[in-house]
């Protein structure tokens, strides 16, 4: 494989710094290099600096390399999406219309739609069908500059289908250029056949499904929908603690629809991240800051459900490391556009354009324990790079509703453009 040398970027956003979640003013530090340059060899970044610096290092080897002239372009790390439900069957456009007519997300779910409806369609789909449908979504992620995604199960809600979803992600991680980091979410809902027997379903999750997932090494994280009418904080804690014993790192869908103690629980169990947090309490936010729980905020979901977005600005000011994500799923956020999410993070949560970029790269990588490999353009990390059709980073958020992706490289190989 020939080396790749991208040079003369108008701005190269390196995000160099500690491989740790960035907080407060660290979320404004982009490590911008003007007339920037990056050299990638065997998929790994070997040098980053000004074009002049890299010319001094590599001029004698330039004949070996594929050279890309990035004059006039912004260059960033590949975006990281740390929260998706991307491997599912069917779709739910009829629910979109129901919600426009006034039905709430929980009304639809309680009537057997929502997560239950996707669960039925995912149970019916074969593994190959799920691979084919999910591939289209992964292609779309790449086209929007996303080179790493997290993916959750949770549309099986039984042993066989939960394993099927996780195996689909495992296969795609090998087949598709995007890196997929898997999360088990058997506690996404109480399946309809267990209605009124919630504890019995939790027993199945804890005693049957989780041990299989761990034994087959199909997931890194264990996530729970801790919400009124779904799983209580006590039930969520039981499921997350059971996962911890098996080596699965906790995540929590917390305080999305109602303030329910989810942020506090995330701090208590030492979750790596808490998701949504639209209704998180001030005390919960404070506890997350103290325990170093990353807030994974999903402003496209808030918009799509016509809810007020999470308090992103206040969370950063309170010392919480913030990541952002599409929450790509068939019900509350059917999008694969991280650029849209960065824009919404600015408009509806009052992040600055620099903070939104940190939240979509290095902090997102930290939320899925991928910070050693991706999330910044630094020596030793993967050559995951986006060259944008804008020249300064603010334009990414300012010129909204347009896909500015020009070229995408995954591990030094061109995959878009
Ligand atoms: N809120 C829970 N789970 C997903 C939505 C799943 C669905 O509606 O299919 C979310 O994160 O938004
Ligand atoms: Zn989710």
Q: Can you give a write-up of this model?
A:
The chain has 417 residues and is of the alpha/beta class. The protein has 16 helices and 16 strands. It has helices spanning 51-58, 93-100, 105-110, 115-124, 127-143, 159-175, 198-215, 233-245, 262-269, 282-291, 299-304, 312-317, 338-349, 353-359, 362-367, 393-398, and strands at 4-13, 32-41, 44-50, 66-69, 74-77, 79-81, 146-152, 179-187, 221-226, 249-254, 273-276, 294-297, 322-324, 385-388, 405-410, 413-416. The radius of gyration is 21 Å and the shape is globular. The structure holds N-(iminomethyl)-L-glutamic acid and zinc ion. Residues 85, 114-115, 118, 225, 253, 256, 301, 327, 329-333 line the site of N-(iminomethyl)-L-glutamic acid (NIG). N-(iminomethyl)-L-glutamic acid (NIG) is lined by residues 85, 114-115, 118, 225, 253, 256, 301, 327, 329-333. Its main location: cytoplasm. It catalyses: 4-imidazolone-5-propanoate + H2O = N-formimidoyl-L-glutamate. Its EC number is 3.5.2.7. Zn(2+) binds at residues 83, 85, 253, 327. InterPro entries: Amidohydro-rel, HutI, Metal-dep_hydrolase_composite, Metal_Hydrolase.
Report, as a whole number of angstroms, the end-to-end distance.
19 Å
Q: Output mean pLDDT.
A: 98
Q: Please work out how many helical segments DSSP would assign.
A: 16
Radius of gyration, CA atoms, in whole angstroms: 21 Å
Summarize the biggest pleated sheet. Answer: 8 strands, mixed
Helix-and-strand structural type: alpha/beta
Strand residues, percent: 15-25%
Cofactor: Zn(2+); Fe(3+)
Subcellular location: Cytoplasm
Main location: cytoplasm
Catalytic activity: 4-imidazolone-5-propanoate + H2O = N-formimidoyl-L-glutamate
């Amino acid at each position: 494989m020939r080396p790749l040398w991208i040079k003369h970027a108008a701005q190269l956003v390196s995000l160099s710094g500690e491989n740790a979640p960035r907080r407060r003013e660290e979320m404004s530090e982009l490590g911008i290099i003007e007339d920037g340059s990056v050299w990638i060899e065997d998929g790994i970044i070997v040098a980053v600096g000004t074009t002049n610096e890299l010319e001094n290092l590599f001029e004698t080897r330039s004949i070996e390399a594929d050279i890309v002239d990035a004059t006039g372009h912004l260059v960033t790390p590949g975006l990281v999406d740390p929260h998706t439900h991307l491997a599912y069957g069917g779709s739910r456009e009829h629910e979109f219309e129901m919600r426009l007519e006034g039905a709430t997300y929980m009304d639809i779910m309680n009537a057997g739609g929502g997560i239950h409806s996707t669960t039925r369609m995912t149970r019916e789909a074969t593994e190959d069908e799920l691979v084919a449908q999910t591939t289209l979504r992964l292609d779309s992620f790449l086209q929007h500059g996303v080179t790493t995604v997290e993916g959750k199960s949770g549309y099986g809600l039984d042993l066989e289908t939960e394993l099927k979803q996780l195996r689909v992600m495992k296969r795609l991680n090998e087949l598709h250029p995007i890196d997929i980091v898997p999360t088990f979410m058997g506690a996404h809902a109480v399946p309809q056949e267990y209605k009124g027997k919630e504890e019995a379903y939790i027993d199945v999750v804890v005693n049957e499904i989780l041990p299989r997932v761990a034994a087959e090494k199909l997931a890194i994280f264990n996530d729970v929908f801790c919400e009124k009418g779904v799983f209580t904080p006590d039930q969520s804690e039981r499921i997350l603690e059971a996962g911890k014993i098996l080596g699965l790192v906790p995540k929590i869908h917390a305080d999305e629809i109602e303030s329910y103690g989810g942020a506090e629980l995330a701090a208590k169990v030492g979750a790596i991240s808490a998701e949504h947090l639209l209704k998180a309490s001030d005390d919960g936010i404070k506890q997350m800051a103290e325990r170093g729980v990353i807030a994974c905020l999903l402003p496209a979901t808030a918009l799509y459900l016509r809810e007020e977005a999470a308090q992103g600005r206040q969370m950063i000011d309170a010392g919480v490391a913030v990541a952002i994500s599409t929450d790509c799923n068939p019900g509350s956020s059917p999008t694969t556009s991280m650029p849209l999410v960065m824009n919404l993070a600015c408009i509806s949560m009052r992040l600055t354009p620099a903070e939104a970029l940190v939240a979509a790269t290095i902090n997102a990588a930290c939320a899925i324990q991928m910070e050693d490999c991706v999330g910044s353009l630094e020596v030793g990390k993967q050559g995951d790079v986006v060259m944008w059709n804008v020249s300064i980073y603010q334009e990414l958020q300012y010129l909204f509703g347009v896909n500015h992706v020009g070229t995408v490289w995954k591990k030094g190989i061109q995959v878009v453009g």
